Amino acid sequence: MRDMATDRSSVTAGNTQPSGPARGTRPRVLSGIQPTSGSFHLGNYLGAVRQWVALQESHDAFYMVVDQHAITVPQDPAELRHNTRLSVAQLLAAGLDPERCTLFVQSHVPEHVQLGWIITCLTGFGEASRMTQFKDKSARHGSDRTSVGLFTYPMLMVADILLYQADEVPVGEDQRQHLELTRTLAERFNTTYGDTFTVPGAYILKETAKIYDLQEPSAKMSKSAATPKGLVSLLDEPKATAKKVRSAVTDTDTVIRFDREAKPGVSNLLSIYSTLTGTGIGELEQKYAGKGYGALKTDLAEVMVDFVTPFRERTQQYLDDPETLDSILAKGAEKARAVAAETLAQAYDRVGFLPAKH
Ligand code: TRP
């Protein structure tokens, strides 16, 4: 592990830097988020989105809302469209700045699917069958209710990444295997057809950024939890959020101390508090020495309300102004296509497709 925030061990495993499109000196990052979640929750935000915001300062950053990945499972069309806008609005509210990063919607850039086909043809059937996320999801739904799109999902993701010659891909631990596949396929293409793609490193978001359920602090905060009481949705009424914090599960002890094993509930509250305010855990332990859980919860509830209130307002402002949002996305798609089209043209040529003459 090289630094505090991330495990970048595989970055050192040999980035190649083929010619590729002209670019600045900053390393390039790319990541995607599915538009299926509706409201972001605190786990998404602290685990991923906040990192995205930070990376736009130091990196040439490309971020997209992956609507084409979303339809690998059934979606209601009106809801998908709404959730896509809602995701973009929340990303902007969280601090992504279209002047400092390229923010776009996947389906606005047709090159993803075009390169996706080539990648699919480069992938072994057995190799794809070993993707654990697919195995889990298809086991849950049964093979007749599992789309072929869900099976080829990782290959579209590989295309997403390789099109932009990304150096690093910030994702959660659950995407590690897809990242490994990306590296394998990039290398396979380069060996078969000549150097074309940057082999990206993983940028796995570290455990401490992990936020747990407020009611069941041994489980990761997630939309699919048994009860919504443990889930902090950023677009909820701030009052409801404050209440959830105050009724968070702790333990029968009274000491405020960070101990993930023995005191998962209290530790979760401490790490949320620490992450939102930038105060160290040790400092918080000192601040609350001799005080009860009630004091910690009351203060954290206030911190949360101060955080979600402006977030909600900013999101609503973007939703209320669809023209601004559309023009941000149009510019984002244009910037993205400039890079994607060049990479795709190179890949088409290397594979041996006959150029279309206009
Ligand atoms: N599969 C990712 C997820 O579910 C989303 C995603 C799609 C992605 N394409 C990507 C992430 C490209 C990083 C890079 O979280």
Features:
358 residues; mainly alpha; three-stranded parallel β-sheet; 6 strands; 52% helix; 8% strand; disordered N terminus; binds tryptophan
Could you please describe the fold and organization of this structure?
By secondary structure, this protein is mainly α. Helices cover 52% and strands 8% of the residues. α9 runs antiparallel to α12 (293-319). The longest helix has 30 residues, at 322-351. It is globular, with a radius of gyration of 22 Å. Bound molecules: tryptophan.
Cα distance, first to last residue? 51 Å
Strand order of the largest sheet: 1-6-5
Q: What portion of residues belong to β-strands? A: 5-15%
State the secondary-structure class.
Answer: mainly alpha
| Helical stretch tally | 13
**Largest sheet composition:** 3 strands, mixed
- Please state the average pLDDT score: 91
The tally of strands reads 6
* Low-confidence regions: 1-16
Rg, Cα atoms, Å: 22 Å
Bound molecules: tryptophan
How are helices and strands ordered from N to C? EEHEHHEHHHHEHEHHHHH
Helix content: 40-55%
Sum up the overall morphology in one term. Answer: globular
